[in-house]
């Protein structure tokens, strides 16, 4: 398995531009998570999906951020318009959510390599 | 507020020294606990996890962690660190459907 795939790996853009980050989860996984990592705030969960449905978007900073998961194998995180304070590494992770909460294979998240975003 | 706390922000050790990184959480009830490692320039990888049973959990690369319910702690240990252990270490608690991460501890091992 190729693992979680994210693109692009690096993105440099100017303030005000639209940025779209992409994620392909591990095949068969039914949960997908978007995180943002900065020096100041550490690792923050932005939003997560179960079976393509957004479950918790309370971590999304503001209306400039939006995420979609049109199918089980693809998700996007969009920032429009982008601002310098959005500069961070954005990670996507996926997992297999089991209804048997006690199983040891439940909810291990596998992370992608991240997208390093720089907004000038 | 409920949280995950890693008290050591930066730890510097010499090779062969013993390691213990603290992690405390403030969530009640049943919790699932994780330690992830992030090597320089890489993504997070799972070191070990606790769901139930033996509170002493063994992970990859010689790491282990002990769940102490009464102390709300899940400290990470390794008896003898190597230069290749230089990385950032994250403790996480699964609550609901998501992971709540601590701020991370940066470990620097001097050769």
Keywords:
heterodimer, A: 120 residues, mainly beta, seven-stranded mixed beta sheet, four-stranded antiparallel beta sheet, B: mainly beta, Immunoglobulin-like, six-stranded mixed beta sheet
Question: Can you tell me about this structure?
Answer:
The complex is a heterodimer of chains A (120) and B (111). By secondary structure, chain A is mostly beta strands. Chain A is 0% helix and 52% strand. In chain A, the strands form 2 sheets. In chain A, strands 2, 4, 5, 6, 9, 10 and 11 form a 7-stranded mixed sheet that branches. Chain A has a 4-stranded antiparallel sheet with strand order 1-3-8-7, with no helix packed on it. In chain A, β4 (31-38) and β5 (42-50) form a beta hairpin. The radius of gyration of chain A is 14 Å and the shape is globular. With 111 residues, chain B is mostly beta strands. Chain B has a single domain (4-110), classed as Immunoglobulin-like (Sandwich). Helices cover 0% and strands 53% of the residues of chain B. In chain B, strands 2, 5, 6, 10, 11 and 12 form a 6-stranded mixed sheet that branches. The radius of gyration of chain B is 13 Å and the shape is globular. The N and C termini of chain B lie far apart (40 Å). The mean pLDDT of chain B is 92. Classes of the chains: A mainly beta (120), B mainly beta (111). At the A-B interface, β5 and β10 of A face β5, β6 and β11 of B.
Mean residue pLDDT of chain A: 90
- Quick one: how many beta strands of chain A? 11
Order of helices and strands of chain B: EEEEEEEEEEEE
Number of helices of chain B: 0
Q: Regions of chain A with pLDDT < 50 over 5+ consecutive residues?
A: none
Uncertain regions spanning at least 5 consecutive residues of chain B: none
Question: What is the CATH architecture annotation of chain B?
Answer: Sandwich
Main sheet characteristics of chain B: 6 strands, mixed
Helix content of chain B: under 10%
- Report the structural category of chain A: mainly beta
The N- and C-terminal alpha carbons of chain B lie at a distance of 40 Å
Biggest interface and residues each: A-B, 25 and 22 residues
Classify the beta-strand content of chain B into a percent band: over 45%
